[in-house]
């Protein structure tokens, strides 16, 4: 499969790229600068691209089977740029006539009880609310793109570098927790879940939560 990966220079993006390459896929990794460190594979190409420009996305996506996204705002950027990127990516895919999109989302929009999202709980960090709400807004934009075969992959509450175990569980729109009520996943195992969905298309038009 020939995959265009947006946000490939980030910690999650690099792990998704590595997982896809290890499975024999070709990956074009996009970052704003075009510089992506830590990946040395003949099937990997690093390119510069602007994820807020639909025409740029269309030109990059042309000829690819799937567009994958690990996009997120830079630390110094307004979180609202995430919705701008979401709209641009969707428009670009339509221009390029590519209909498969697998998107890395956020945990804040996952359900933790009747009519309650994780972001609405007292335990959710106040400083993380703006980015969580931006991810929720992005999901609503993606949900309206019924002409695309999209999947939205949301991590556990805690996602960090760790071991690649190959183990994970999923749920449709609900936060995944372990037997102790903790919600966590390594970036490596999240990349496995992401790549599995990209290959199988089992969760099209689904907000898929991933955790242990």
Question: In words, what does this structure look like?
Answer:
This protein has helices spanning 11-22, 54-61, 81-96, 129-143, 187-200, and strands spanning 2-6, 26-31, 44-48, 66-69, 100-104, 111-113, 116-117, 149-154, 158-160, 169-172, 184-186, 206-211. The two termini are 28 Å apart. The chain has one domain (2-211): NAD(P)-binding Rossmann-like Domain (Rossmann fold, 3-Layer(aba) Sandwich). It has an 8-stranded mixed β-sheet, sandwiched between helices. The chain contains 5 helices and 12 strands. 31% of the residues lie in helices and 25% in strands. Strand 4 (66-69), helix 3 (81-96) and strand 5 form a beta-alpha-beta unit. It has 212 residues and is of the alpha/beta class. Pfam families: NAD_binding_10. This is NAD-dependent epimerase/dehydratase family protein. One of its GO terms (molecular function) is oxidoreductase activity, acting on the CH-NH group of donors, NAD or NADP as acceptor.
Percentage of β-strand residues: 15-25%
Number of domains: 1
According to CATH, the homologous superfamily is NAD(P)-binding Rossmann-like Domain
Residues in helix, %: 25-40%
Structural class: alpha/beta
User: What is the CATH architecture annotation?
Assistant: 3-Layer(aba) Sandwich
Main β-sheet: number of strands, strand sense, barrel status? Answer: 8 strands, mixed
Mean pLDDT: 97
Order of helices and strands: EHEEHEHEEEHEEEEHE
Figure out the total of helices.
Answer: 5
Strand segment count: 12
CATH topological fold name = Rossmann fold
Could you tell me how far the N terminus lies from the C terminus, measured between alpha carbons in angstroms? 28 Å
Strands of the largest sheet, in order across it? 3-2-1-4-5-8-12-10
CATH first level? Alpha Beta
What value does the Rg take, in angstroms? 16 Å
Shape: globular
